Amino acid sequence: MGPELVATISPPVSAVRERLSALRRDLHQHPELGFQEVRTASLIAARLAELGYTVRTGLGKTGVTGRLAGGRPGPTILIRSEIDALPLQEAVAVPWRSRTPGVMHACGHDANTAIVLTAAEVWARERASLPGTMVLAFQPAEELLEGAAAMLADGALDGVDATAAFAVHLNNEAPVGTVTLRSGPVTASADRLAIVVTGQGGHGAFPHLARDPIVATAHLITALQTLVSRETPPAHSAVVSITTLKAGTAFNIIPDTVEMTGTLRCSHGELRERLLASLHRMAEGTAAALGCQARIDHRLLTPAVVNDPALTRLAWDVAAGIVGDPQVVELERQTGADDVAFFWERVPGCYMLVGSAKIDGTPVGQHHNASFDIDEGTLAIGLELLLGVVARTHGTTRAAPRPA
Ligand SMILES: [Zn+2]
Ligand SMILES: [Zn+2]
After folding, report:
1. pLDDT tens digits, residue range 234-247?
2. Residue 110: nearest ligand to its CA?
């Protein structure tokens, strides 16, 4: 006998458990890439409409929102789920594996979506006694880090005066039956960097007649390492990675230009501003010292996800009631990114990770891997958690859970 999953699941969640799993498997079989989630979006829209939600579609191409006003006055709460899959050929031999060649739900967005859509059903059923308004945002293209901004640009939150927001994401780095939370910065901001160093090309044997952008670039890449070691406060975190480098055509020709791209990740918006300014100074100064010029382009893909401390405390409490306090773990700060950050900039939010790795010793793939597979026990826990934090935000508690 291996370890057993221990979680207390309430009767309303137990009652929808099978449908929740069936919905997740259906979404898993029909994965769609970012901004192409046509089937997924229409399934969500149809279900929300059937449940009595006011539905908006076509937000950021394929995003959907649903709004449900409860029978009693209360706050507006925003829930966000992402709906896109990844360009991978699924390597997991389950009956519900992807039916679309080369596309796979390898990050668990099928599960996240199924959890929110099933919660939508519970809120609709309890509508008369629901205090306040639920706004559900089903976001496309999270993996491209473009969907949230696109939805918001299309007015997804116009007229939505939400005071709290939540999102649930699976976490295959932790066993099912654990919940991982962090107050404050959770993920890093992500910028795409593009730098072009321009000198003057010439004969490889006569470097004194040229201005060599390759040597300038070598100095620059080395100098950029000091952005983290010398300019980032030790208690904060940043990453600078130069990841592509293009230059030259032959062994005996000094090229005119070197092009590089890379990424900057920062734990705080303020740090990002400072490091971008330093990046400009360093690139321009280093290039100039070697007789070249540097041009820097940077594009913010997403800010850092910053969890609201009060909502995180509330979520911690609710999670402890479901999986037990020792199973609620503090998340280490991540250098990955999630564009839910754009929503959290508008509404104080809490991004919650539910463990989804199997505990029977079966190997599970990491996120973004063709062998990504989950323990479906995570679905009921994610749903219980989502319903719980909403109830707690409303100042009520859910019916006493009983052991699963
Ligand atoms: Zn992902
Ligand atoms: Zn994801």
Report:
1. 989 999 999 999 99
2. 2
